[in-house]
Specification:
Elements (H helix, E strand, L loop, with lengths): L1 H4 L5 E5 L5 E2 L17 E5 L33 E4 L2 H6 L4 E5 L2 E2 L4 E2 L6 H11 L7 E5 L3 H12 L4 E6 L7 E2 L7 E6 L5 H11 L5 E3 L6 H7 L1 H10 L5 E5 L4 H16 L8 E7 L4 H7 L10 H10 L18 H8 L2 E5 L1 H15 L5 H15 L9 E5 L4 H5 L4 E2 L4 E2 L6 H9 L2
Parallel strand pairs: 5-16, 8-9, 8-12, 9-11, 11-18, 13-14, 13-16, 14-15
Antiparallel strand pairs: 1-2, 1-3, 4-5, 6-7, 10-17
Length: 429
Amino acid sequence: MQLLKFKPTEYTLENVKTGRVFEDEGWTLNDPEGGDPSLIRAVYATSTFSPRNDLKGLYRYANWMPVKRTLRHSCAPVTYKSKGLAKHLGLNNLYITFSGWNPKIGAKMQTCSFKETEAFSVCARIDKKEKRTLIVQSAGNTARAFAQVCSDNDIPVVICIPEDNVHDLWFHKKLNKCVKVVAVPHGCDYYDAITLGEKLAQDPRYFLEGGAKNIARRDGMGTTILSFVEKAGRIPDAYFQAVGSGTGAIAAWENAGRLAADGRFGPNNMRVFVGQNSPFTLLYDSWKACSRQLADITPELGRRQAEVILAKVLSNRKPPYGIAGGLYDVLLKSHGDVFLASNDDIIYWLLQFRNFEGYDLLPAACVAVASLAQAVKNGTVGKDDCIMLNCTGGGTLAAFSKGYFIKEPDLVLSPDLPAEEIIAKVAAL
């Protein structure tokens, strides 16, 4: 009955750079009037933060998500005040926002990743009458989340992923036939998966999810800070997250702005701190060069760096960095910074976090913890600062105890193939 009663969220779209307001045509990813590159942003009819207690899971935040319906099996991020890690780091107001599997604290994301917040928001933006097939390009966690959500809700999707990252496609049960996985060969990276998806999207039977340009992706991810504010009652002084594209940090900043406009949660003085897994340091290098332009990186070097990092989901060679409203603007306006964590740092903080908080994190989330530890050590944050640590995934040890299998690719295709050949092979699946 809940699905029948749901009324689509009301909103308009705004060009971040120009401020032009216009209507969403259903799957608008850019300002149709063009102009300089800019993200677009949702402006919701409900300007106050008002979680919906009549809806379950992630859709409690539907008033600030551009959704037409609700889907089955969603779960919202969980925020709690840290004791163990906070004591170790000497912090009095550290809050951990966790998206993963830890039923003891109420976290029940089946795929153990906050990418579920994206998937449940993006897929709920799709009209029920949509005849085309969604294309999702991913380095791993996003693929798993979209595959699970689409499978559970009968939404046709083609997942494009590097073959080297197929181990991330683990599930507890067989997927619905509406989910197809197409991989780029060993040695290729996330950017190659993006290229493959873009070629497939030249066929009108398919449409791209849109990545950071999709307001539903960003506002789904932005529910992490909504979870925080429900618990802490205020906008944090500092926000920490590991990033590949930086979309989650952009989303947090956008929702911090909405919360500040509400007036009940303080001003948006939130400093945004993000972390990368060295040696893949594209965003770090670009920011430290004080440049809106991305640092130069050859495809060969990017692929080699992506191969050796533990947090492979943080290896995006095409992040929304310099675009208006992108990560550069967020870091600049928030007086933020970028940190680095090595593979050794990840292992160290994986073990430490489990000791202090009682559950395991995915490698990317360990980068966020390492970044926070560095910020404490160098005095970037103080012991009384109100801090949000966005732990974007974990709980796999508990989840794997239920048993799992790996979804093998339905096809492996070179991104260098002509679009016509890629389309024909995928359509034959």
